Amino acid sequence: MKNLKKEFPVTANYTHLNTAGSGLLSETLLDFRQNHDLDYLVYGSVIKDKQDKFISGVRKDVGSFFKCHPSRVALVPSFSIGFNFLLDALPSKTKVLLLQEDYPSINWPVEARDFEICYAAIDEHLEENILQAVEREKPQILCLSLVQYVSGVQIDFEFLKKLKENFPDLIICGDGTQYCGVEEFDFEQSGLDILGASTYKWMNAGYGNGFFLFKEAMQEVLKPKAVGFASIRGLYKEENEHALIGKFEPGHIDTLNMGSLQAAIQLVKKVGYSNITEQINTLKKQALEAFASRGLLDDFVTQRKVHSSIFNIKGDQKLFEKLKAKDIICSQRGNGIRISFHYFNTESDLEQLLKLI
């Protein structure tokens, strides 16, 4: 992996092990944003005339990137906004399966509505817990993070695929905020019916952008209530006033923020997904072995076959302050310190962390 300190200037001054908290601003993204606002400054509302075409281009790139037809790609400011639209598209008393202690932006909106709710535990038997809950409770929809924000536990995608095959009527909705951007993902071939994500973390796309992807069958299942003038503006919406994505886009779509997502996708293509995944997997393997040998991880994490590049290591406030003082950026989550590795990190970043620990 080439040195990326120039592309991500923060890494020249800090050891950034906090992508799970926030991604970085790249030079590629900065160039786009500066040029976009310069055009706005010079041309004013003239650039508005090109908005629909521009947004259609972003939609096409997002769809191509995640293997989903662009007519089923909704562009949203954040996962939370899109997810609330989604929940309002479900009938009251819908039975929803959640994971205990999953990300608040998933569980809280569900728990705030008039749904029947059941739960599965997050531990080394996560997939078996979900299967048993589906068999026992017979939920209509499963909503879960693909990667857990506290522990870094990652769901087995093959399990989700088999789950969908065995329970075809079960709607499976995944939050990819802590996943999208670390490896290639084929939405059409996955077990997911719906994939949503904010893209300011692992996509390094800045704030104010995200997406929701839908399988074809969701057009008939979901009945969103949100609507606005933009619901029928642009490609795939003008020819179908009842288009599902239009109900997730009732208002103006910010070309600066959505263009930032497009620029971030272009950077990933430039670096190469294979290079990104290889670097993340290398660091993930080394970190898992190092943390486990020092007794820094919960037992259930080391017992799982699948894990992300997010780790919650055992550490108190004193250790956290020590790391901050040495310019290592991380987060306190749960009962420990959350460390996360992305492709701009290096083996020396891990070595420096281990020396301080």
From TrEMBL:
Native organism is Leeuwenhoekiella palythoae
Report the PANTHER family cross-referenced here.
Answer: BLR3095 PROTEIN, CYSTEINE DESULFURASE
The protein's name: Selenocysteine lyase/cysteine desulfurase
Q: Which UniProt keywords apply?
A: Lyase, Pyridoxal phosphate
The source's domain of life comes to Bacteria
Pfam families referenced in this protein's UniProt entry, alphabetically: Aminotran_5 (PF00266)
The yes or no answer to whether the keyword Nucleus is present is no
Instruction: Tell me which residues make up the Aminotransferase class V domain.
Output: 79-353
GO terms for MF: lyase activity
